[in-house]
Amino acid sequence: MCGIVGYIGTKPAQQLLVEGLKRLEYRGYDSAGIAVIGQSGLSITRAVGRVQSLEDKLEETGSLEGTLGLAHTRWATHGTVTQANAHPQRDDTSGICLVHNGIIENYAAIKTYLEEKGHQFSSETDTEVLAMLIGELYEGDLESAVQAALREVTGAYAIVVVCEQEPDVMIAARKGSPLMIGIGSGEYIVASDPSAIVAHTTQAFPLENYNVVKLTRDHIRTSTIENIEVTPRIMQLEMDLGQIELGDYDHFMLKEIFEQPSALSNTFRGRLDKKSGKVVLGGLDEFAKQLVKAKRVIITAQGTAMHAAMIGEYLLEDLAKVPTECEYASEFRYRNPIIEDGTMVVAVSQSGETADTLAALEEAKDRGALSLGVINVVGSTIARETDAGVYLRVGPEIGVASTKAFTGQVAVLTLISLFMARRRFMSAEESSALLKQLELVPDKIERVLETADTIRTLTEKYVHRENWLFLGRGYNYPTAMEGALKLKEISYIHAEGMPAAEMKHGPIALIDKGMPVVFIANRGAQYEKVMINIEEVRSRGGHVIAVATEGDTQIKSIAEDVMYVPDVPEALSPMVTVIPLQLMAYHAAVLRGKDVDKPRNLAKSVTVE
Ligand code: F6R
């Protein structure tokens, strides 16, 4: 949510910063801006709209010369989408200029204080308030002024700050919102995530909460906001450029849907010991005893990750026989939750930065729970905050609509369930059989992907309809929820997902002639019950689109359209049944002319409450 990039070195900053912004654009895209300090001082250019609008403006107004600068792509929190509210923001006295990701919660009180001191504001943003505060406290040393200002603010921030009076210094700081410092030779690149860094260097470190870094071309100093010096933990970024480029695909979402077979093979690599029926998860070894003894599991997440968590609830109860519940992180954190001895909390998050999920995790830890992370982004805040965890290993997800992270999350929750199950009640035979089936999942996904053109043709028939239902039972009730979310978030079609039987308790009133109703109707324990629900929809004129198991001919006679998937054990089926739903959502959005990778009002990685 909001992309930040900063550069200090010897190369012209503008091009590098704009390239960085393009990589970070998926984090927010309502306006963009850049500031560079050069021979002629500080120059700022801002534009409403995408990074392309900023580039167009720079073309018109001329390049910004200089080898130090910062840039921002915005997802609005305070203030409407206008040029005045775009970042960078600057103060009115000291030549302070900053970009910010997060929310300064006490900005109103600080603004009143600064207004009383005579400062004039020209935007509605909390960011301008922070710039003014730093300017107010500035006495010739930018680092101290930033530290002093940050001691006064509450809320979340990742900031990069420069000052016209110190043209060879760049300061960055964070609390809550992520920030990575890339270390090149004679240059530093600061960015919200590694995608804007890897083209320049693979040496980097994530800035810790309440830490401030001072960068000059040949020196780096990291301290706390209390000015206590700290030593950062430098790591090697493993991302390669190919992973974050579109290649031959039209959209990142499509690329990521098609990457799922290889992504899941990666998730499983070296983790399935089919002989002993054991799952090998190095990250959990140290806590194996506690996992085996766990009395209760709470899985917490938001959005798509929550749907994966809901499948995790079925898996953990079904396979590992441990009482499990799922809770939206945003609710859990404010609910005064009861955490008894033996409770384990699992935070599921692609980005590892979702503000609510992080806060729920902190709440659970404060109350004494053992915490696990199911995270994609290595070294992200949640990954670092949890006691232990398992990475998804599905590679960077750029499309705002999550696809490969969803199947990766379900895959890892399956692994954790089997890790516990085999050490609790499950026999080696039963576990081995499931592991063998698990290993086949990537190939089965591949087979569904081969039907992408058929799914596009099918979607064309229904794409003009404005209301859809997605229904499923058991393991595939969350899959139905995920299908509905995918469709609504990128094509803006209204869709609801729910347990198939719940339809009769109200939503059935919505069904009119021709309404598309998508059933996840693969073979499983509740297949016959789903058939009954399908008949109920048909008799009210709804058009049934079924996701069914290959070879099921019965369903053809009652559904208008069928999307076939290979046979998979029910516990593993969501990783396969979700694929046609992802493809359908993708094609619906493309057919309706929507911007698939940058849906309106959304941004990847929700780092504010
Ligand atoms: C939907 C989507 C979001 C995220 C949610 C949690 O396609 O991507 O619903 O799943 O914002 O994000 P993470 O997994 O990064 O915590």
Main attributes of the structure:
3 domains; Rossmann fold; 6-stranded antiparallel beta sheet; binds fructose -6-phosphate; Glutamine Phosphoribosylpyrophosphate, subunit 1, domain 1; 19 helices; 36% helix; alpha/beta; 609 residues
Your description of this structure?
The protein is α/β, with parallel strands linked by helices and 609 residues long. It folds into three domains: 3-243, Aminohydrolase, N-terminal nucleophile (Ntn) domain (Glutamine Phosphoribosylpyrophosphate, subunit 1, domain 1, 4-Layer Sandwich), CATH 3.60.20.10; 246-445, Glucose-6-phosphate isomerase like protein, domain 1 (Rossmann fold), CATH 3.40.50.10490; 451-596, Glucose-6-phosphate isomerase like protein, domain 1 (Rossmann fold), CATH 3.40.50. The chain is built from 19 helices and 26 strands. An eight-stranded antiparallel beta sheet has the order 3-2-4-1-10-9-11-14, covered by helices on one side. A hairpin with a 2-residue loop joins strand 7 (155-163) and strand 8 (166-175). Helix 14 (404-424) packs antiparallel against helix 19. The N and C termini lie close together (11 Å). It binds fructose -6-phosphate (F6R). Fructose -6-phosphate is lined by residues 302-305, 349-351, 354, 357, 401-402, 485, 489, 605-606.
